[in-house]
Amino acid sequence: MESLPGTLSLLLALPLLGALGLFCVPRDMKRALFGLALLATGLTFSWSLWILRAFDPAAGSMQFVDRLAWIPSYGIEYAVGIDGLSLFLVLLTTFLGPIVILASWSITQRVKEYLVFMLILQTSMLGTLMALDLFLFYVFWEAMLIPMYFIIGVWGGTRRIYAALKFVLFTMSGSLLMLVAIIALVSIAARLTHITSFDVVRLYDLRLPFVQQMWLFLAFSLSFAIKVPLFPFHTWLPDAHVEAPTAGSVILAGILLKMGAYGFLRFAIPLFPDAAVAATPFIATLAVVGIIYGALVAMMQRDLKKLVAYSSVSHLGFVMLGLFALNRQGLQGALYQMLSHGLSTGALFLAVGMIYERRHTRDIADFGGLWKPLPVFSAFFLLITLSSIGLPGLNGFVGEFLILLGAFKTVPVGAVGAAGGIVLAAIYMLWMYRRVIFGPVSPENRDLRDIDTREVALLAPLLVLIVFMGVYPQPILSRMLPSVNRVIMRVSEPGTVSAHWPPGTREGEQEKTRHAG
Amino acid sequence: MQANVDISLSPAELSLASPLIEIILTALAVLLLDLYLKEEEKGALTWISVLGLIIASIMTLVFWPSGEAVFYSSLRVDGFSLFLTNLLLAAAGLTLLASIHYLRNAHIHKGEFHALILFGTLGMILMASANDLILFFVALETMSVALYVLTGMWKERSEAGEAAMKYFLIGAFASGFLLYGIALIFGATGSTNLDRISAVLGAGAFRGDLLLNAGVSLVLIGFAFKVAAVPFHFWAPDVYDGAPTPVTAFMAVAVKGAAFAAWIRILLYHLGSVGDRWSFVLWTMAILTMTVGNLFALTQTSVKRMLAYSSIAHAGYLLIGIVAGGEAGGSAVLFYLLVYTLMTLGAFGVLMALKEHEKEADSYRHFAGIGFRHPFLGVAMSIFMLSLAGFPPLGGFTGKFYLFRAAIETDYTVLAVMGVLNSLLSVTYYLRILVMMYMEEGTGEARGFTGSPYLYAVIAATALGTVWLGIVPDLPLELSRLSFISLR
After folding, report:
1. For residue B25, with 0-12 CB atoms within 10 Å meaning exposed, 13-18 middle and 19 or more buried, which class applies?
2. Which residues 409-438 in chain B show a CB within 8 A of chain A?
3. Any idea which of A245-259, B7-21, B380-394 has the lowest mean pLDDT?
4. Quick one: A511 exposed, middle or buried, by C-beta within 10 A (0-12, 13-18, 19+)?
5. pLDDT (average), residues B439-445
6. Which residue in B397, B417, B428 is closest to A180 by CB distance?
7. Residue B132 phi/psi, 5° resolution?
8. Is the per-residue pLDDT at A122 higher than 90?
9. Is B393–A176 a contact, with Cβ atoms under 8 angstroms apart?
10. Are A79 and A132 in contact (CB under 8 A)?
11. What pLDDT score was predicted for residue A502?
12. pLDDT band, residue B449 (cuts 50/70/90)
């Protein structure tokens, strides 16, 4: 299908237009405010579905590319595009959009500002996923921080200010070094090719000397590893998750955490393939440590949100392991796991939010026997729990299975460790489920009302997708494959890629082999 | 030198000097009118001054051709001076507009205040255009004397006198360094004219390497005092704190602009061949200035003092561009000066809008809860703080991006890394304002806001400018690049 220009720009603009529209609605009309925000995110989601339909599954290249000179004197462009790596993450983002708005109904104070920040966040997340220009990417990457900072800091829990600041400082400490690396990469490229361009597709073709690759890879990786978060950079995550309002946690776990892994996949690995290969043992080790450590710590948590937060550390360890298996199964599995973690952890946070609204506590010890007053909820919660564990037939299984398959080929020891993590996940999730849902019902919990239509409507779409992705992964995997293959090719076959590059890069090749030998 | 100098003005010289003469006439008119106008009519003085500044700006655009040197080539009018002159005129105009209510509350005499701002601006413009070290020195003193007085103008505040005295003593001290440095350079090269000095340097026909280096280093120290670079910064916080807020804003913005302009023209461009030997010193100074400024800003409880230290830190960022040098570094400094002027003026503007029982409200707690109680000030202050911290897509980010880029392209990567680490440090205290404004409940202080529409207009204009420079920076970037390459 012929792609129309402006397709992706419209997708970016819709939430922003919604935010502008919100300014015109009086602040005490809560229904109108929510309606408008729902409309904006709903339209965004529908438009992204149209994009999915028009997406060419066979092409591994960028599609729907919009280009516009932005700062021409410095080679900076407004360039957005989408390929198999970003397509489903974009869909996940737009899909969660209306859900988080609906989930925020319990917000009573400063609704207008809250919704404006949510919509701005939506645009900046989409921009991060679609940006093809490194400068633009960085702008969106940093722009995600501000709305999230406010969402945690204004509408969060008791230690919200501390958590919000920690979130910003951790993320920025990595990303500022990435900024230096971006500038350095572009100026190195400009010296080699005499073209100043921040276009990542153009920069893909460049193969730098190994030492330069290593430095730049380090700077990019630090930024992404903090965002993932890879052990030991995860300490901001539990604080941010616990203090954020429910919708903030859903966005954080569902999408923001994926940005780090996406950054590796889109930038760090294909731009610096030799460094990525060299760093595999270290990152795979950290990933496996994260899987085990996250699971063990999750097991010991009393707070439901903290438990889910640490389970995210564990699950994202899987994603990192899959990425750095650096083969087809590993990358596909990592991408798939990113999607399914977004769904199942998003759903987990929603579920935790629902019982929090009823009991105003997240302490596992305060619950028990919820199946009696909340039968529908308990059924939903079971499915989500099983999905998070990775039960075959549900979404979590596909990703984890592919990741282990890929990892066994390149880092078998890591795969063994990770498999242990799956067992641990089953333990802590089922144990948590037993303590919350089963057992004797305490008097405080006896009269809780079951979830209402709005809450069913929140969870149902997530559950449908959880099941769908578990039984029929093929349409998703097949659309990822061409783009994944391109990344693999860049990593494994250096000769073919750098063949059409100016002779200046040849010296780089020699230096690389010298260092490797 | 010729024995009898023709001191009559040629028509060309007259047209070039006309904007400067116009500013002097405006200042004199303000002083005279001040005597005849009744107290309630003195609002007109602001409008006369602002009008004078606007006319001067138009005159520079019309009358100033590129690259002309006049008055025995002691004054150089090129794209560089055009850029800075208009920046300084805008800074002065915005300061005057923003301070209307402030002056009334603080009982500061309008006539003197306006005239001194105008004279100070004149000195700054001459600093940016001086092609002769003697003219430069006179211009610097013109600016400084005006500012010494302005600093002490709020006589009811005990800190004002202290600040003015301190500023005067340190300023005189710095002038001594400068003058001695100029004398030594004259001794080594036989001229105070920058064209002739660079010709002598280019030919290698100077006397005494030591003499020249000593001269340049003394001039460097003089500049470091003026821009408050570490370790010559210690006067700045007290002076910034003690001065009336509009004067603080004017000092933080315009003095820095003029001093960096002269720095670029004299040290970077004309004495560049000698200045290169000092790049290590400047490198150290840049890192120290950023780090010390940010660390001290972190510990402040008064927002005014925080902004004072933050302006020291920003001098450090600007020094990155000076160290990098060349077209990339020079134009990055110019662009950053533009951004810095807007966001700093705006931040001080918001500070002026807060008051507590007719007093200045400048501590962090005064910002508590403002974000939701006064959305306009909240949003504007957020823009300024986030821009100062270097968040995209705001002007402060774009400015830093070009400074760091210049450093990386000239292989000063460590400097760029120090720059970003310092940005991280600064995020902590800039965000503290946002925390106060949006995440703490108001405690009843600073309930009052000065309702001056002009102040709000200035805040709105600077906020819009800050956003604009972040989103579509291409035109101003190109302007600052052209201005730099027009230097000669």
Report:
1. middle
2. 409, 413, 416-417, 420-421, 423-424, 427-428, 431, 434-435, 438
3. B7-21
4. middle
5. 66
6. B417
7. -140, 135
8. yes
9. no
10. yes
11. 41
12. low
User: B408 and chain A: CB distance < 8 Å anywhere?
Assistant: yes
Residue B383, CB half-sphere, CA atoms under 13 Å: how many? 30
- Look at A31-35, B67-71, B122-126 and tell me which has the smallest mean pLDDT: B67-71
Using DSSP, state whether A326 is helix, strand or coil. Answer: coil
| Per-residue pLDDT reduced to its tens digit, A447-478 | 888 888 888 888 999 999 999 999 998 889 98
Q: Which residue of A has its CA nearest to B379?
A: A113
A51 residue type, one letter: I
Confidence of residue A511 (pLDDT cuts 50, 70, 90): very low
C-alpha neighbours within 13 Å on the C-beta side of residue B363: 6
d(CA B278, CA B283): 9
Spell out the SS3 assignment of A209-270. Answer: CHHHHHHHHHHHHHHHHHHCCCCCCCCHHHHHHHHCCHHHHHHHHHHHHHHHHHHHHHHHHH
Largest CA distance in chain B: 74
Residue B279: name the closest of B312, B315, B326, B311 by CA.
Answer: B326
Determine how many CB atoms are found less than 10 A away from the CB of residue B228. 29
pLDDT digits (tens, 9 = 90+) for B261-306: 999 998 888 887 776 778 888 899 999 999 999 999 999 888 889 9
Q: Where are the domains of chain A?
A: 7-516
Cβ contact B76:B127 at 8 Å: no
pLDDT in tens, B54-91: 999 999 988 887 667 777 788 888 889 899 999 999 99
Q: Cβ–Cβ of B416/A176 closer than 8 Å?
A: no
Does A188 touch chain B if contact means CB atoms closer than 8 Å? no
Residue type, B153: M
> DSSP character for A199?
B
For residue range A64-81, what is the model confidence (pLDDT) as tens digits? 888 888 888 888 889 999
The ipTM assigned to this model is: 0.89
A109: nearest CA in chain B? B372
Task: Identify residue A496 by its one-letter amino acid code.
Answer: T
Listed residue (B392, B427, B426) closest to A164, CA to CA? B427
Residue B356 has pLDDT above 80, yes or no: no
SS3 A68: strand
Among A415, A409, A414, A355, CA closest to A380: A355
Most A CBs within 10 A among B335, B387, B434, B469, hence the mutation to make, goes to B434
CA distances from A304 to A249, A299, A464, B123 (A): 12, 11, 24, 66
What mean pLDDT is reported for chain A? Answer: 86
Instruction: List, for residues B166-202, the tens digit of each pLDDT value.
Output: 999 999 999 999 999 999 999 888 888 888 888 888 8
Pair of tokens at residue B265 = 């023209």
Alpha-carbon distances of B17 from A97, B22, B259, B266, B332, rounded to whole Å:
61, 9, 21, 21, 29
